[in-house]
Structures are given as C-alpha cells and as structure tokens.
Amino acid sequence: MEFGNRTKTQAPPPQNVSAKPLRAKLLQLTNVSKTFQSVTQAVEALAPSNLEIEEGEFVVFFGPSGCGKSTLLDIIAGFETPTTGEVLFEGSPVTMPGSDRLMMFQEHTLFPWLNVVRNVMYGLKHKREFRFRLRKQRETARSWLKMIGLEEFETSLVHELSGGMKQRVALARALAPDPKVLLVDEPFPALDALVRTKLYADLQDILVRTGKTIISVTHDPREAACLADRVLVFTPRPGRVQKEIRVNLPRPRDINDQEVGEYASRIMEELENPPDEK
C-alpha cells in the first residue's frame, strides 16, 4: 500500500493546533446605504458601506447613538431595504426577513399569555420540520432552556420572571428555529451588571458550542471587547465603518478582565479620534 511505502519527506506536517479553520463567506454587503425620507427632509443614516462576515464569527457594530448601526442590522435582517447597494446571504440577495436571520430585540417581546416553554416553541411552529409536531417543538424548546439554565422555569409565566430571565428566554426563542445568523440589537442596557455578565457568558457559550454567526450592536466598549471576534467602529451619522479591531483573546472572557479593558480603551480611542481628526 502507498501508506507503507511513504518516506519521511512525504509525511504530513504536524497539525498546527492554533490555526483557525477556513470559514465560508456568509454575508456580503456592497455599497449599502440608507437614507430616510420624510415630508420635509432626507436624513442619511448610513453612508455607502462594504462588509463581509464569515460563518461562525461574532461581529459587533460599535458607535454612538444614531450612527446607523441598528439600521444596518435591520437591513441584514430584511426589515429595511437599502437605498443603494446589495446584501447577499450565502450568495443570494436579501429582500425580506427570513428564518435564517433572526433578531433578538432591545425589548424581550415575549407573549405574556404563554408560559416560558411555549414562548420558546412559538418560532418553531412555522418551520416545516416542526409543523404540527408539538412533542418535537417542546423537546427542542426544552433543550435551549437547558442551555441557558432556565429549564426549571419552563411552566412559569412571563410576569413571574426577572428582567434578565426574560431576555434569556428571548435568546432561547431566537435560537430555537436554528438560524444561521443571530442578530442582537442592544438587549442589555436596562439590566444590572451581574445579569449582563451572565448573558455575555451565555452568548459566548452558544458561539463556542454551536458555531453560530452572531452580529451584535452596542455603544458599550467593554461589551464589544468582551463579546467580539471583530469590532467595527462606526463614525457619527451618516455612519460608516472607520476601523476594524480584531479582539485576540481566548474565550470565555470576563468583562472585568484587564485585557478586555485594554481593548475597550483602544475601541474608545478610535471612536474619539476619527480619521479626519487624527
């Protein structure tokens, strides 16, 4: 056999455990901009922007309020149509919302008349493989509640939960239909520091265990440094990406770690010193 005759020079090189696997391009944005037109004026929210996001990345849009980062998230989700440019998801144009790109909103948007497990099940009933299969819906919902540590609260009603628990249920509901991209639009500011820390840990754990692509929006530099593989720093309106910062820290990360703080300082420095002022 060829294997038995292999010489030393033909031996495969040792595996580089630190090398990252090649990732597929999942999202491609070309010349994407957004201008909102009212009766009296036009407001340019987002300047023409180009961006690529790879499968399995955690990308954070960071910038001041009103810089267009949430608008760009809505365009990726299919909630908004760009004024110019094109968004491609796996090579196909994004023209509407889809179950492959699901959003976790600033408010938990849970249904108060449903208990926890039925809230998580809600997004499953429209998927073909779950339609009319309540047992499969329930099993899948329970598996996600277990992942975020809320399995014992599956029969609780929404009003019986704390703010942090509601957001974790909302996270499970967004993930249950197995989207390829999870979009996270600043769901944490109203929560206390301990609850936010738990949610940061949940998101990192989900990233590592499932390989999900996650795109998040924040104006908190420590949150960006704690969560992201890449932080895209936006200019004030009309927003555009002025700097990309790669966060080369192992996971899980604690938001209070010194290294996270150092990256946060670098992110803020970029925000406070845009290119035309350097």
UniProtKB/TrEMBL annotation:
SUPFAM superfamilies reported in the protein's UniProt record: P-loop containing nucleoside triphosphate hydrolases
Origin superkingdom: Bacteria
GO molecular function: ATP binding; ATP hydrolysis activity
Keyword Chloroplast: no
Span of domain ABC transporter: 27-263
Coiled coil: none
Organism, as annotated: Geobacter metallireducens (strain ATCC 53774 / DSM 7210 / GS-15)
CDD domains: ABC_NrtD_SsuB_transporters
Pfam families named in the record: ABC_tran
Protein name: ABC transporter, ATPase protein
Record keywords, A-Z: ATP-binding, Nucleotide-binding, Transport
